[in-house]
Amino acid sequence: MTQTPAFDKPKVELHVHLDGAIKPETILYFSRKRGIALPAETVEELQDIICMDKPLSLSSFLAKFNYYMPAIAGSREAIKRIAYEFVETKAKEGVVYVEVRYSPHLLANCKVEPIPWNQPEGDLTPDEVVALVSQSLQEGERDFKVKVRSILCCLRHQPNWSLEVVELCQKYQQTVVAIDLAGDETIKGSSLFPGHVKAYEEAVRRGIHRTVHAGEVGSAEVVKEAVDTLKTERLGHGYHTLEDEALYARLRQENMHFEICPWSSYLTGAWKSDTEHAVVRLKNDQANYSLNTDDPLIFKSTLETDYQMTKQGMDFTEEEFKRLNINAAKSSFLPEDEKKQLLDLLYKAYGMPSLDAAGQHP
């Protein structure tokens, strides 16, 4: 019997990783084509290794990428295909606008420790990766009628790449809307590494939008660093903000947007299931947040997974789903005219009056 969708109206997704949203069939195809051995030969075997079905640690989750990324990174054909297939997948999930993020350097196979799977550097550059992804996302947008923009990730353990990420954001500003800081939050003080700070200062100077993974497993102090030093406009996850009531109250007053990933937070151990999830507090306080998949390949999920989780286990209603998607659209990094078009689309689909010229409901 087919499960009734938790929310069958158009949706907006702001936090999903391209390299965590690849079809298992595509990984196997390129491992064979490129002659790169994987510890699996079928979709089922691959999923048994890389997918999670019970809570682990964030570091255990991050280690999953080591199994399958050798088949994708450094290949122009693979990078184009995963970007195009990503848009197709989001269309099937009822997403009308999505911001997908990735590290150009990792997809280019740039040398980095401690990730062991990187092969010797080839001729594929981070610049070309962004060009390839942008082209395929635009082709997917055309074919599947989903509006797509991308976010480029700086990595906590690789601050010397961050300024180049800012340059790429500016060069490809027609399709790239922001920078992000991702990676292991347990690297103490990594938000404050000079390379990251300089990159975010440069992003502010150039008018490039900013989001940061903070408060997923890290403390409220990491969130403070993201807000006060990196001047982030959104928070990736941000659950542990609630440990500091004064900080939470301040961010609510400033209308900070929280990119919430419920199913992800359960499987990575960012949320302990015997406690109330941070998203329940955000819902009750009518705060600004969205629901997102994060890494659906590894979590063996779709956006429906996160909507069902909040509907069945946290009493989310259709009206709350409408509200959070409107907030996601308002907090997107689209230019204002495109943002208004997106909001008008949602208001029409939700049976709500559109905004007037002053941005108010009639």
From TrEMBL:
<dbReference type="GO" id="GO:0001666">
    <property type="term" value="P:response to hypoxia"/>
</dbReference>
<dbReference type="GO" id="GO:0002467">
    <property type="term" value="P:germinal center formation"/>
</dbReference>
<keyword id="KW-0458">Lysosome</keyword>
<dbReference type="GO" id="GO:0043605">
    <property type="term" value="P:amide catabolic process"/>
</dbReference>
<keyword id="KW-0378">Hydrolase</keyword>
<dbReference type="GO" id="GO:0002636">
    <property type="term" value="P:positive regulation of germinal center formation"/>
</dbReference>
<dbReference type="GO" id="GO:0050850">
    <property type="term" value="P:positive regulation of calcium-mediated signaling"/>
</dbReference>
<dbReference type="GO" id="GO:0043084">
    <property type="term" value="P:penile erection"/>
</dbReference>
<dbReference type="GO" id="GO:0043103">
    <property type="term" value="P:hypoxanthine salvage"/>
</dbReference>
<dbReference type="Pfam" id="PF00962">
    <property type="entry name" value="A_deaminase"/>
</dbReference>
<keyword id="KW-0862">Zinc</keyword>
<dbReference type="GO" id="GO:0048566">
    <property type="term" value="P:embryonic digestive tract development"/>
</dbReference>
<dbReference type="GO" id="GO:0070244">
    <property type="term" value="P:negative regulation of thymocyte apoptotic process"/>
</dbReference>
<dbReference type="GO" id="GO:0008270">
    <property type="term" value="F:zinc ion binding"/>
</dbReference>
<dbReference type="GO" id="GO:0050862">
    <property type="term" value="P:positive regulation of T cell receptor signaling pathway"/>
</dbReference>
<dbReference type="InterPro" id="IPR028893">
    <property type="entry name" value="A_deaminase"/>
</dbReference>
<dbReference type="GO" id="GO:0006154">
    <property type="term" value="P:adenosine catabolic process"/>
</dbReference>
<dbReference type="GO" id="GO:0033089">
    <property type="term" value="P:positive regulation of T cell differentiation in thymus"/>
</dbReference>
<dbReference type="GO" id="GO:0005829">
    <property type="term" value="C:cytosol"/>
</dbReference>
<dbReference type="GO" id="GO:0006196">
    <property type="term" value="P:AMP catabolic process"/>
</dbReference>
<dbReference type="GO" id="GO:0060407">
    <property type="term" value="P:negative regulation of penile erection"/>
</dbReference>
<dbReference type="GO" id="GO:0045187">
    <property type="term" value="P:regulation of circadian sleep/wake cycle, sleep"/>
</dbReference>
<dbReference type="GO" id="GO:0070256">
    <property type="term" value="P:negative regulation of mucus secretion"/>
</dbReference>
<dbReference type="GO" id="GO:0006939">
    <property type="term" value="P:smooth muscle contraction"/>
</dbReference>
<dbReference type="InterPro" id="IPR006650">
    <property type="entry name" value="A/AMP_deam_AS"/>
</dbReference>
<dbReference type="GO" id="GO:0000255">
    <property type="term" value="P:allantoin metabolic process"/>
</dbReference>
<dbReference type="GO" id="GO:0044209">
    <property type="term" value="P:AMP salvage"/>
</dbReference>
<dbReference type="GO" id="GO:0002906">
    <property type="term" value="P:negative regulation of mature B cell apoptotic process"/>
</dbReference>
<dbReference type="GO" id="GO:0050728">
    <property type="term" value="P:negative regulation of inflammatory response"/>
</dbReference>
<keyword id="KW-0965">Cell junction</keyword>
<dbReference type="GO" id="GO:0030890">
    <property type="term" value="P:positive regulation of B cell proliferation"/>
</dbReference>
<dbReference type="GO" id="GO:0002686">
    <property type="term" value="P:negative regulation of leukocyte migration"/>
</dbReference>
<dbReference type="GO" id="GO:0001890">
    <property type="term" value="P:placenta development"/>
</dbReference>
<dbReference type="GO" id="GO:0033632">
    <property type="term" value="P:regulation of cell-cell adhesion mediated by integrin"/>
</dbReference>
<dbReference type="GO" id="GO:0070242">
    <property type="term" value="P:thymocyte apoptotic process"/>
</dbReference>
<dbReference type="GO" id="GO:0046632">
    <property type="term" value="P:alpha-beta T cell differentiation"/>
</dbReference>
<dbReference type="GO" id="GO:0046059">
    <property type="term" value="P:dAMP catabolic process"/>
</dbReference>
<comment type="subunit">
    <text>Interacts with DPP4 (via extracellular domain). Interacts with PLG (via Kringle 4 domain); the interaction stimulates PLG activation when in complex with DPP4.</text>
</comment>
<dbReference type="GO" id="GO:0048286">
    <property type="term" value="P:lung alveolus development"/>
</dbReference>
<dbReference type="GO" id="GO:0042110">
    <property type="term" value="P:T cell activation"/>
</dbReference>
<dbReference type="GO" id="GO:0042100">
    <property type="term" value="P:B cell proliferation"/>
</dbReference>
<dbReference type="GO" id="GO:0032263">
    <property type="term" value="P:GMP salvage"/>
</dbReference>
